[in-house]
Write a structure and sequence with these properties.
Strand content of chain A: 5-15%
Distance between the termini of chain A: 23 Å
Largest interface: A-B, 58 and 61 residues
Strand order of the largest sheet of chain A: 4-3-5-6-7
Largest sheet of chain A: 5 strands, parallel
Number of strands of chain A: 7
Oligomer: homodimer
Order of helices and strands of chain A: HHEEHHHHHHHEHEHEHEEH
Shape of chain A: globular
Number of helices of chain A: 13
Helix content of chain A: 40-55%
DNA sequence: CCAGGTTTGTCAAAGGTTTGTCAAGGGTCT
DNA sequence: AGACCCTTGACAAACCTTTGACAAACCTGG
């Protein structure tokens, strides 16, 4: 239980705004002492932090408040990341299967315009994180299988991957706005090149207001070390998309933990299990992964 | 739900145009607050982004709007390709030196927002091709030197490169549509990874209306062979950004010429000289290079 | 190639709404 | 006593609204 001053410093919202938000939108309704003093709990702080993030990133306070109240935005309490926008709405969308099919067909025909059109329609289905988790990543997996099967040539696979990369880049760029605080460095270890998942995660994190530095593919371990030490850095997030990337990833992670004990070292991707003791394994949902990184204090 | 201002920044469409497009074409019909303020959702943003892309690439807004409304956003060819902006004096623009300096400083501080701001201002100086030729590529060269000198850490260099990649990706995406006819495949040979120049060229070519298939970095020679044979292809353009890429490039080029004698095999980049007999060496200006590829019949 | 009409981006005016912040007047806590 | 908290009311800046207009760019017929 915190006083209003303490709540202000923890949530980053000025005291006056805290009262105004309560009066005008009812984002939180803190308990009161007998004498009427406000008492905020951890859930309230979390909701307020979420609201500040949304407002900082351009939402109107009124819209942010209703989003939080309706559970649209993640106002999850504490380190238990939950209550995320459910993927089901997109998964069960009758269009997704057809859309994946359209994407594969376009890739197989190396028809760039058709690939872009499929992505257009996909991203129109819902919010970025949901679309990525529920449609894009599964579709890319299918694309990989189609390539392995020979149904899609490597050229079509490349053309499609780069089209996806462009879309993600656009989303990343669009998520700019105010990103403050210590940096979150996102990238792949030495030798790793499949960066779409990393970029999608970086975008989700940036959309949450984190100051993401995306350093992309194939960053040597010593560069990682210097990266997190040279500037105030909150976390380093490594993507481990293939089995071959595990060795470099675990070495990089171990070195980071040793050389910069204060920071959070996290890893995501299909092969990110058991890299090194102390490394946080991120869930495969980019929305959940981004929430986890935001909430976890190293 | 976003306010009109936020929707504008996310879709890249000016606020005034947002209202005009709604009034005149009804591309989107945002929900309203009780007091009449517009509220845009993610689907609206996606539709607006698509519309902007089409308009940027030469469609008339009216045509783009009906195309989007009917769901076939990227099908019909637009009006005639407009005359391309002529190279003007970006070089002599007093701002470029300062802008390069700003970019280097932002890279050295690993300040993503500052990097993006420098790129913003750079691309505001003139037409895409001119800015790339006269400012961006020289600035990237300087960035490379700064990295070699140790003035900029590899992390700053990566962060800046990826920011540039995002900008180029946006430009490539914006140049969509009106691309019919035999494909032009653009990419890098096996082992080559410095793709910014290739992507800039691919964008310039697409802006001229060529059906560019961008296949990116590190494409093995046999994939190149299959790429140009599987579909009607007019040209293959290889980027050779470093000395190390020469061997793979010349082998790939020679194989392409042998296996597909009908097509144009061209190469650009600092180390693209004398790759193999029959390979067209592209000038370093992406505008000139794109024009050359368009005009040359293999 | 030129005149006349249409399309389209952008702007301004006039006026309402939202929101952060502050101040006044007064109570509570240590 | 001094630091902290309360409510209420207020205000300016930022933001939004519509309507109307205009110049540049584009198209079409002559």
């Amino acid at each position: 239980m915190y006083t209003i001053k303490e709540a202000s410093s923890r949530s980053g919202v000025p005291v006056a705004s805290l009262r105004a938000w309560e009066r005008r939108y009812g984002v939180v309704t803190p308990r009161r002492t007998e004498s009427g003093y406000r008492l905020y709990d951890d859930a309230a702080i979390a909701a307020l932090s979420t609201m500040r993030r949304l407002v900082d990133s351009g939402w109107s306070p009124a819209a942010a408040a209703t989003a939080i109240a309706s559970g649209q935005a993640t106002s999850e309490p504490g380190p238990t990341s939950a209550a995320l926008p459910q993927a089901s709405s997109v998964t069960t969308h009758p269009e997704t299967a057809a859309l994946t099919e359209a994407l594969l067909e376009a890739a197989s025909a190396v028809d760039v315009a058709a690939i872009e059109s499929a992505l257009d329609r996909g991203f129109a289905l819902g919010p970025f994180e949901t679309v990525v988790d529920a449609w894009l990543m599964p579709a890319l997996r299918e694309l990989g299988e189609a390539w392995a099967d020979g149904r899609v040539d490597v050229v079509g696979e490349h053309a499609a991957s780069y089209a996806v990369m462009r879309r993600l880049s656009q989303a990343f760029a669009a998520a700019a706005s105010l990103t403050r605080g210590p940096r979150v460095v996102v990238g792949l270890p030495s030798g790793a090149h499949h960066e779409l998942g990393a970029l999608a995660f970086a975008t989700a994190a940036r959309r949450r207001g984190l100051a993401v530095v995306y350093v992309g593919a194939d960053l040597p371990a010593d560069s990682w070390r210097r990266a997190v030490r040279a500037f105030p850095t909150r976390a380093a997030v490594l993507a481990v998309p293939t089995d071959d990337d595990r060795t470099a990833a675990s070495r990089t992670a171990a070195e980071l933990l040793e050389s910069s004990p204060g920071i959070l070292v996290a890893a995501g991707g299909d092969y990110a299990d058991d890299l090194a003791p102390g490394v946080v394994r991120l869930p495969s949902s980019i929305a959940q992964a981004a929430a986890l990184v935001e909430e976890t204090q190293a």
